Amino acid sequence: MPANVIDGKALAQKLREDMTEEVSQLKAEGIMPHLTVIIVGDDPASKTYVNGKKKATHQTGISSDVIEMAASVSEHELLEKITELNQDKTVHGILVQLPLPEHINEQKVIQAISPDKDVDGFHPVSIGKMMTGQDTFLPCTPYGIITMLQSYNIQIEGKHAVVMGRSHIVGKPVGQLLLNEHATVTYCHSKTTNLTEFTGNADILITAVGKPNVIKQEHIKEGAVIIDVGINRLDDGTLTGDVDFPSAAEKASYITPVPKGVGPMTITMLLNNTIKAAKGLSS
Ligand code: GUN
Question: In this entry, which stretches build a coiled coil (predicted)?
C-alpha cells in the first residue's frame, strides 16, 4: 500500500494560525514579540532563508528586523552588536544566520547570544538543557520533525530511529529529541560502513545528508516512517530531497515530500520559539 504523505505545509499553516491568535493576545497584553536576524555577507541561499523568516514573522503578527553586515565585518563588531541586542528589552529573539565568513568563529558568536534569546536553540546552555530534558528553546528543524511525528500520531517510544547525518543543526539534535521520546537511536554518517544494514532496520528514518536520491526503496524497511530533511537543487532548478520519493513511498507507511515536508515546519518552530521568548518561558 502506498505511504501516507505527511503534509508539512498544511500542518505548518494550521500551527501558524494558532500562533497568530496567540500573538494578538500577547499584543493585547502589551507584549510585542520581536525577532532580530543578523545576516553577514551576501550568500544567496542565506538571503532566501532570511527573507522567508522575515515574511513568516510578519504574517504571524510578530515584528522582526534584519541587520545586514558586510562579509568583511570583524568578529569584534559582530559580538558588540549581539551584546547590544542582548541588552535591548524590546528584542526577544536573536538569530545569526549561518554559515558565517571564515574569519569569524561561529561558536564564539553562538555563545555570545543570551540563552534567553536563543531562538535557534544552538547555545550550549540550550543544548545542555535539551540533553537533560529541561524546558528550553529546541532547534527549529528537529523540533519541527518531532512535532510532525506527534501531530500524525506516529509512535516514537520503543521504535528504532536511524538518523543519517550528524550536523549540529539537524542530525545530532534530532537524535537527542527522539531519544528523549524513548526511541532507540542509531546515528549514521559519512564514515558509516554497511549503511543499508542500519537504514533497512529503521522504523523511523531521518535523512539529513544533502545528496539527492541516496535512499531508495531497497534501503528501507517495509512500513518505515521516512522523514526527508534534504533540500537539493538539481541542474534543472527543481528541488528534491535525499530520498527517491516515488520508490520509497511504495514501501513506507509515512513519508515527507520535498518541498512541502520538513521545510515549512522549520520556520514555524522559529515563530514558536520567538513567542516563547517573548513570554519569557525559558528563564
Ligand atoms: N543556516 C541553515 N539553517 C540555519 C538555522 O536553522 N539557523 C541559522 N541561524 N542558520 C542556519
Answer: none
Is the model's pLDDT at 94 over the cut of 60? yes
Distance 188 CA to ligand 1 centre (A): 22
The tens digit of pLDDT for each residue in 155-186 reads 999 999 999 999 999 999 999 999 999 999 99
CA dihedral 67→104→139→265, nearest 10 degrees, is 50
What is the complex's ipTM, to 2 decimals? 0.97
CB-CB contact of 189 with 201 (8 Å): no
Tell me which of 120, 203, 228, 242 is the catalytic residue: 120
Domain range 29-115, CATH architecture: 3-Layer(aba) Sandwich (3.40)
Atom of ligand 1 nearest to the CA of 169: 6
Q: Where are the domains of the chain?
A: 29-115, 139-264
Annotated binding-site residue? 215: no
Is 97 an active-site residue?
A: yes
Rg (CA), the chain: 19
Q: Give the pLDDT confidence score for residue 61 in this predicted structure.
A: 98
pTM beyond 0.95, yes or no: yes
- What are 198-215's pLDDT values in tens digits? 999 999 999 999 999 999
Active site residue 134: no
Question: Ligand 1 mean position to 283 CA, how many Å?
Answer: 23
CATH code that applies to domain 139-264: 3.40.50.720
* 3-state secondary structure string across 170-226: CHHHHHHHHHHCCCEEEEECCCCCCHHHHHCCCCEEEECCCCCCCECHHHCCCCCEE
Q: Are 184 and 141 in contact (CB under 8 A)?
A: no
Q: Which residues line ligand 1 (CB under 6 A)?
A: 95-98, 120, 140, 169
Does the annotation count 53 as an active-site position? yes
Q: How confident is the model at residue 281 (pLDDT cuts 50, 70, 90)?
A: low
